[in-house]
TrEMBL record:
Keywords: Signal
Domain Reverse transcriptase: 1-160
Keyword check for Signal: yes
PANTHER family: REVERSE TRANSCRIPTASE DOMAIN-CONTAINING PROTEIN (PTHR33116:SF86), REVERSE TRANSCRIPTASE ZINC-BINDING DOMAIN-CONTAINING PROTEIN-RELATED-RELATED (PTHR33116)
Keyword set includes Signal: yes
Protein name: Reverse transcriptase domain-containing protein
Signal sequence extent: 1-21
Stored InterPro entries: RT_dom (IPR000477), RVT-Znf (IPR026960)
Length: 503
């Protein structure tokens, strides 16, 4: 293929200096020396692929140019496609004639001889358009010696052909989510861990599909309810209490919520990104094909020529230019754009919890009235009465259980900064946190003591012991000190191993 011996030698060193061992019954075995391929995941491999397929690309373009291979046009005037190549997936298009398919085969043969690569016929399939006659189908299949496919095959993990039933085409996304969730023994995971799994793993599953397709709304709802049930936990068929509405949980973290993704919105955002590409990359094959097929006489967003979001914002007063927004978008869209808050600098001060996920999750739930206190259980008709078990007088609301109950006097009176609770007369936990913050008291200590009180309360439920009040403060302080030390050592570590040349 015209590479110099020195270059080939360098590449082969990358291949041959690697050795592999494989785990057999948990023990590494063998020193396997590869001869044919570069290490998987090596950053060089996509470049090597590009360099090699450049010649295949050239051969196919040449054949198309000379009219030997016709390719496939999506519609009249659309540029004909002869091939689409990506990583280990290649799609080749030609007319359904023996002559053209033989041409394609010849090209692959020449490429194979030059590059040393060969067609893997067991991984190759052929697809005919509906108008192809059965006779010619059989002849071509015989000549190419590859099997025919009918429906729902995938290209890059995405369905390449869409049937009438869109939901059936994408059902695999839901099945993958379901399988993952089944794999995790949900009852053994804390809610904080489930949060991480949902965000890092589950919500990532449909991303590649959603980047290119609009998932049916019904499917999004089904996936949402799978995730929701996992988040709140479920024992067998019995559904657990869903303490907070899912829509609320999808609000961003900076508004004090969980920041889960709303799948349908997420999907729209991804597709908007594709529209953005169609606005700005007008040399791409993607643009040329789509323009002819879908918007031959205008832009993808009519009237929006090379626009930027910043053009829609008044730079001095940092607000949306309402007239312009209304002029460019439909009323509904304009309302959505105008409802997006713009950042004013300087950014306002916020309370940020530097805590372990468990404590953070607990405090979030306490603020949301989403912990199973007797009062909350009564509201949901799970209990018939809500009297506090410790004082036996008042109803056990979240604020009562963690803060107001007279039996907690001993704990709070010895907690520095909170000796006189009547000073901080708050109605709920959210208020209390804000007041604590305003009065510059120790919010961390408050959170840790509350978390420990709740922890002890729940352990008591299982036994008949008395509330170990003396231990609460001690435990909370220890946990807090431990946490602060670990944070401190992290900062020190970062400082010690930071970039040396900066010093
Ligand atoms: Zn009480």
């Amino acid at each position: 293929m015209g590479f110099t011996a020195h270059w080939i030698n360098l590449m082969m060193l990358c291949v041959k200096t690697v050795t592999y061992s494989i785990l057999v019954n948990g023990e590494p075995k063998g020193m396997i020396i590869p001869t044919r391929g570069i290490r998987q995941g090596d950053p060089l491999s996509p470049f090597l692929f590009l360099l090699c397929t450049k010649s295949l690309n050239g051969l196919l373009n040449n054949a198309a140019h000379q009219g030997h291979v016709k390719g496939y046009s999506l519609c009249r005037n659309s540029p004909p496609l002869t091939h689409l190549l990506f990583a280990d997936d290649s799609l080749l298009f030609c007319r359904a004639t023996i002559k053209e398919s033989q041409r394609v085969l010849d090209i692959l043969d020449v490429y194979g001889k030059c590059s040393g690569q060969q067609i893997n016929r067991s991984k190759t399939t052929i697809f005919f358009s509906k108008s192809t006659k059965v006779d010619s189908r059989n002849q071509i299949k015989l000549a190419l010696r590859v099997p025919e496919i009918i429906q729902y095959e995938k290209y890059l993990g995405l369905p390449s052909l869409m049937g009438r039933n869109k939901k059936a085409s994408f059902n695999y996304t839901k099945e993958r989510v379901w399988k993952k969730l089944q794999g995790w023994k949900e009852k053994l995971l804390s809610q904080a861990r489930r949060e991480i799994l949902i965000k890092a793993v589950i919500q990532a599953i449909p991303i590649s599909t959603m980047s290119y397709f609009k998932l049916p709304v019904g499917l999004c709802l089904e996936i949402k309810s799978l995730i929701r049930r996992f988040w709140w936990g479920q024992k067998g068929e019995r559904r657990k209490v869903h303490w907070v509405k899912w829509d609320t949980l999808c609000l961003p973290k900076k508004e004090g919520e969980m920041g889960f993704k709303d799948l349908a919105n997420f999907n729209d955002a991804f597709l908007a990104k594709q529209a953005w590409r169609l606005l700005h990359n007008k040399d791409s094959l993607f643009y040329r094909v789509f323009k002819m097929k879908f918007f031959p006489n205008c832009n993808i967003v009519p009237g929006f020529e090379d626009g930027r979001v910043s053009d829609l914002i008044n730079p001095c007063i940092r607000t949306w230019d309402e007239n312009l927004v209304h002029g460019l978008f439909l009323p509904e869209e304009a309302a959505m754009v105008l409802s997006i808050p713009l950042s004013h600098t300087p950014v306002e001060e916020k309370i940020i919890w530097p805590f372990t996920p468990s404590v953070r999750n607990f405090m979030w739930r306490a603020c949301k009235e989403a912990i199973p206190t007797k009062h909350n259980l009564l509201k949901r008709k799970i209990l018939n009465e809500d009297k506090c078990e410790h004082c036996g007088v008042e109803s056990e609301t979240t604020a009562h259980a963690l803060w107001n109950c007279s039996t907690m006097d001993e704990i709070w009176e010895s907690t520095s900064g909170f000796e006189d609770r009547s000073q901080l007369g708050a109605l709920n936990i959210m208020d209390l946190i804000n007041l604590t913050h305003e009065k510059r008291k120790n919010v961390d200590l408050l959170a840790m003591v509350m978390w420990t009180i709740w922890h002890q309360r729940n352990q008591l439920h299982a036994s008949s012991n008395v509330f170990p009040k003396a231990q609460v403060l001690q435990q909370a302080s220890q946990a807090l000190t431990k946490f602060q030390q670990s944070q401190q050592s992290l900062t020190n570590h970062a400082a010690a191993t930071g970039p040396q040349h900066c010093a």
